[in-house]
Specification:
This protein has 272 residues and is of the alpha+beta class. 32% of the residues lie in helices and 18% in strands. It is built from nine helices and eight strands. Strands 1, 2, 3, 4, 5, 6, 7 and 8 form an eight-stranded mixed beta sheet that branches. A hairpin with a 3-residue loop joins β7 and β8. α6 packs across α9.
């Protein structure tokens, strides 16, 4: 049996406003080479769960999820989450995914509703910004952000090495996933956002214009992490000017999908 490497972590490529290249990060470039998909069908959801399994369980050996022997990684929170895939058009590869977990309408006052409440006791919060202090319909958690291992390392045999759009823009993958989560949260009007982040990773997010506030103590959970909070409205308002056109394209495309989506944010249906 492999030893669980609890301190091994992944740092998806990120970027700062100064790193943004005029051509690579334009809406036109993104639209030609990538697409963001709100996972609604069983196949789309399995694609997201499979990518998460490849990253979190096979690569990092975190043993996350309720179905570790099915080559997918999913848990009970996926039943009230919005799943998003980042697809690379030329290769047909899903290069990233992220989920936005919504408060379960069926929750009882004593049961955890967001993933971080399961392993992050209320006493560990160092501020009043605890999920329970906000109206349940305004709260969410961004989690399970995964980037395809081959794309992250730019060396996998199953990625076409001569495809410049996927080889030269790894920072665009993580940035677009962050922007997608920000857009989904705003569209769903779940403006109070929580996440479990490594402090170093949070600093990288801040450099990209997403300024989370640490609201809890550091704990050991798949490495050293803490609870962080951000108000989506403030985050959207303070995005770097160079990122705004890309964000607007991403938000517009996701808004169209979510308008017709069978997701827990807009219907009572329960997804896979």
């Amino acid at each position: 049996m492999k030893k669980i490497a609890i301190n091994k972590t992944i740092h998806p490529p990120t970027t700062t406003p100064e790193d943004i290249k005029q051509n690579t990060f334009t809406p036109d470039f993104f639209d030609r080479h990538f697409s963001l998909i709100i996972a609604q069908t069983t196949d789309e959801k399995i694609r997201a769960f499979s990518l998460r399994h490849a990253v979190f369980n096979e690569e990092l050996n975190y043993k996350l999820g309720d179905t570790p022997h099915q080559n997918i990684e999913k848990d009970i929170h996926d039943q009230h989450s919005i799943l998003c895939l980042l697809h690379h058009k030329e290769t047909g590869i899903d290069v990233g995914c992220v989920r936005v977990v919504l408060i379960n309408k069926q929750r009882f006052s004593s049961s955890p509703s967001l993933p971080l409440e399961e392993y992050y006791h209320k006493s560990l919060f160092t501020s009043h910004q605890h999920p329970r202090y906000f109206a349940s319909e305004s709260v969410c958690e961004v989690s399970r952000l995964a980037v395809h291992p081959g794309f992250r390392r730019k060396s996998a045999a199953d990625i076409n090495n001569h495809e410049s759009s996927i080889r030269e823009s790894p920072a665009l993958v993580s940035l677009s996933l962050f922007l997608a989560a920000t857009a989904i949260v705003g569209i769903a009007q779940r403006h109070h956002v929580f996440a479990m982040l490594e402090p170093r990773f949070n600093r990288l997010l801040g450099a990209s214009g997403l300024h989370f506030q640490q609201v809890g103590e550091l704990i050991q959970h798949c490495g050293e992490r803490a609870a962080f909070y951000i108000d989506q409205r403030v985050a959207e308002h303070h995005l770097p000017e160079k990122i705004v056109p890309l964000y607007q394209l991403i938000k517009s495309g996701l808004a169209t999908q979510l308008a017709y989506a069978n997701t827990p944010a807009f219907s009572d249906a329960t997804p896979l």
